[in-house]
Amino acid sequence: MFLRNTAPFPRRYPWQAWLLLAQFGVSIPFAGLTIVSAATIPLVIERRRWRIWLPAFLLASVIYMVGSTVLTAKFRQLPASVSRVELFTAIGAGALELLAWNVFAFVAAFLIVHFDEDRRRLAQVNAELKGSQILLLESGRLAERLRISRELHDSLGHHLTSLSLQLEVAGHLPDEQLRPQLQQARFIAKLVLADIREAVSEWREETSTALPDALQALTSAVAGTQLVLDVATEIPATSPTITHALFRCTQEAVTNAIKHGAAKRIKVTLRHASGALHLAVQDDGVGAAEVRPGNGLTGMRSRVEEIGGTLRITTGPGAGFQLEIQVPLGEIA
Predict the structure, then answer these.
(1) Domain that holds residue 47
(2) In 3D, which of 313, 311, 309 has the Cα closest to residue 291?
(3) Residue 282 phi/psi, 5° resolution?
(4) How far apart are CA 227 and CA 267, in angstroms?
(5) Distance in angstroms (rounded) separating the CA atoms of residues 143 and 156
(6) pTM of the model
(7) 8 Å CB contact between 323 and 280
(8) Which of 44, 260, 285, 312 is least enclosed, having the fewest CB within 10 Å?
């Protein structure tokens, strides 16, 4: 029963509680087996329910042990040298020993759960940091180009405009020999100014191609869960706003799949069709009978709506969790 009940760890299913009750019933008559049941509690029961299961199990074990010992002593004639005080002292010592071993087994299993949670959390944070690092480098590059474009526009563009005006004024002077050269210089100044304005406009509207790389970093660094990334080759460059929003939504979806869904396999799909990006995150976790949006899902929906996209969630008990995001690129400024 222990092996069958703990095989899905860290997943938790409703049937595990019933199997644990059956395990209790089998192990309580055999005091030496109760430690196995005590160690099962943290592995199959949610943390917030431990305070109910552990005391109830310990109380049932002690009551059974004390009751069976008293009944045995009552129906069997004890040696005359054994007094009631010695009998109840032995029963108390046995009960304390039983409690100590069961609590020890529970704490040992709790440490296993705690270590597994820390390991998963560390791996997840590491993956998030790698993906965020790629986005940060890309944002820094775009920010630097924007700063340079502003400097060109504010300084060099201003000086070229002033030079063009001065040359235009000089062109109206009476010296006929200088007029052709001045007109040529004015034409060159206007041409350079137009080129600078065109470059500044292109830099300000530049898009980012970091989304596939960021998703690759996110999915490749998570340990303990199989993450599959399926990105089409024709993904176009997007604005930094869209890139950041889709990465954060994927990050939150992967976190929920591991933390709440106990997923063993997560698939992230990114496609481009009909002028829109399609992002899907699907896991094989425990799923849910109904969707109750928390801070994570609410934040994802808000991010998607800010970039003009739509979010759809599909789930069911034992059917995993699927999140689909569609962002029309043509409608984003």
Answers:
(1) 2-119
(2) 313
(3) -125, 135
(4) 6
(5) 19
(6) 0.54
(7) yes
(8) 312
